[in-house]
Amino acid sequence: MFLALKEIRHEKLRYGLIIGMIVLVSYLVFVLSELAYGLAQQNTQAISSWNASKVVLNSDANDSLSQSLITKQTADKVKLTAHEAYIGQAGVVAKAKGQAKLSAQFLGINQSQFIYKRVKVTAGHKPTTNHQIMVDDSFKDNGYRLGDKVTLNSTDTQYKIVGFTHNAKLSVAPVIYGTLGTWRTLSHVTSDFQASGIITNRDSFKTKTSGLSTLTMGKFINKLPGYSAQNTTFTFMIGFLMIIAMVVIAVFLYILTMQKLPNYAVLRAQGIPAKVLVTTTVSQALVLVIGGLAIGATLTLATVLALPAGVPMSFNVPLLAGVTGGILLTGVIGALIPVKVILNVDPVSVMGG
User: Fold this and answer.
1) Which sign does the torsion angle of CA 327, 332, 337, 341 carry?
2) Does 120 share its domain with 15?
3) Phi, psi of 228, deg, nearest 5
4) Which pLDDT score is estimated for 285?
5) pLDDT tops 80 at residue 141
6) Quick check: 105 and 155 in contact, CB under 8 A?
7) Is residue 149 included in any domain, yes or no?
8) How many domains would you assign to the chain?
9) Domain annotation covers residue 336
10) Quick one: which of 4, 46, 252, 343 has the most CB atoms within 10 Å?
11) Which domain holds residue 270?
């Protein structure tokens, strides 16, 4: 390690450029990874907050909550416990006087069921009547405030914002929580319909009721519009970028090591064991890669904090750790590739004797 650090201090420009390259590569991979994670979260934030296990939909709804309708007659055949909850979904456009229109997902819920109880309030309170709504915090960024009267879609009915909730998004759109009665009004369905679906947090939940199908939450999320395609695209993009980054870093470290063969030859001629040279090479690679990764991670965190709330980036430590581990491993491999050359270096031939 002593030799590694001493050489880095002596060749500041050369090693500074290597670290700079690692910083740029790692920063690019980190930013894309956090952007992909942030977008995935915005598809499922509301669902994640319920901590649900399964969803029951109309069997003809093509596994889509927004296209599903369950009649009261059918719903009455399903035995619900404290672990189940009705939910109604409708796409809406919210508009308040003097504010911009916002596309949102309206979710109608029952006050006595678990989803209503699990939704956390950041300001105000939860809706208790058909003319009250609770909205995602992103409405604040667009100028909406507690007490604002909002119209939904083309109806003249006004709904009062009585509360805000954090991280409530579904299919990248902010969520508006209200009652099932309001959902029926917005969906233009009669009181013969109970809900769009049934959410449960019981893994053991089953129903054999005709006309209904039960999906695991994982399968339901994968069926969300655009979710699978988006995740697949980002996964391949980040995967290819990781491979390219690893190859570039490994090649740079390999070339750097090969350029130092004359120095290694001199050290070998002075009686320095080959094991010490190999250890120095690996230690130097670790210092360079760790230094570059640390700066890249710091820049990524600063970017996440500096970007406006509308940019769906999220700082995820496990994801960042996985990417960091992959790049770090690549750096070590790049340094180990020329080990055989270092072990067999002949001082006489290298120095031109």
Assistant:
1) positive
2) no
3) -65, -45
4) 81
5) yes
6) no
7) yes
8) 2
9) yes
10) 46
11) 2-43+228-350
